[in-house]
TrEMBL record:
Keywords: Acyltransferase, Transferase. It comes from Salimicrobium humidisoli. CDD domains: NAT_SF (cd04301). The keyword Mitochondrion does not apply. Residues 1-168 form the N-acetyltransferase domain. This is GNAT family N-acetyltransferase. PANTHER family: AMINOALKYLPHOSPHONATE N-ACETYLTRANSFERASE-RELATED (PTHR43877:SF2), AMINOALKYLPHOSPHONATE N-ACETYLTRANSFERASE-RELATED-RELATED (PTHR43877). SUPFAM superfamilies: Acyl-CoA N-acyltransferases (Nat). It holds the Pfam family Acetyltransf_1. InterPro entries: Acyl_CoA_acyltransferase, Bact_Acetyltransf, GNAT_dom. Gene3D superfamilies: 3.40.630.30.
Length: 168
């Protein structure tokens, strides 16, 4: 298994993984990743910024995520709680695992790689948010030591549960 930055030529392999996750959310009536988001332009922008990462097995992309060191504007205000840290952080977005590779620890591996990146860059924490009905993601985060910190609202107003893990 190789963890690496995604390149523009990887987008064609990432998109079907994202689309399968979007379909799964629809089937579970979870209003996350709706209305075509994230789309190919979003993924290309992630790659252009150098924030898109993939896991590959035998050269095939089996999982992807975005790991960003940029401040997440929607994290400035948190409701019904508070962040553990006010220092710099990495933020995880758009984590997705190929359908036939689920339940093999790949999402866990992406979390661990993100935490390692934070430690290696002397960034004290990792933050992430998820839909309140996305119970598998919530369970994944809690099982890896992420702490529920409160509620944030996306720019368009959608509610998300916010988590943080101190890694330093």
């Amino acid at each position: 298994m190789e963890f690496r930055k995604a390149a523009a030529e990887d987008v064609a392999e990432i998109i079907p993984i994202i689309q399968a996750a979007q379909q799964q959310f629809r089937e579970q009536n979870i209003s996350q990743w709706t209305n075509g988001y994230p789309d190919e332009a979003t993924i290309m922008e992630d790659v252009r910024r150098g924030e898109s990462y993939v896991l590959t097995e035998y050269g095939e992309i089996v999982a992807s995520t975005v790991i960003s060191p940029r401040e997440e504007m929607t994290y400035r205000t948190i409701y019904e709680g508070e962040w553990m840290s006010r220092e710099d952080y990495l933020v995880i977005h758009r984590l997705a695992v190929k359908n036939d590779m689920k339940k093999q620890g790949l999402a866990s591996l992406l979390l661990k790689e993100t935490e390692k990146m934070a430690r290696n860059s002397s960034i004290p924490s990792v933050k992430v948010d998820t839909h309140e009905q996305n119970v598998p993601m919530q369970q994944l985060l809690l099982s890896h030591g992420y702490v529920y910190c409160g509620v944030i609202y996306l720019t368009e107003g959608s509610k998300r549960l916010a988590y943080e893990k101190l890694v330093q």
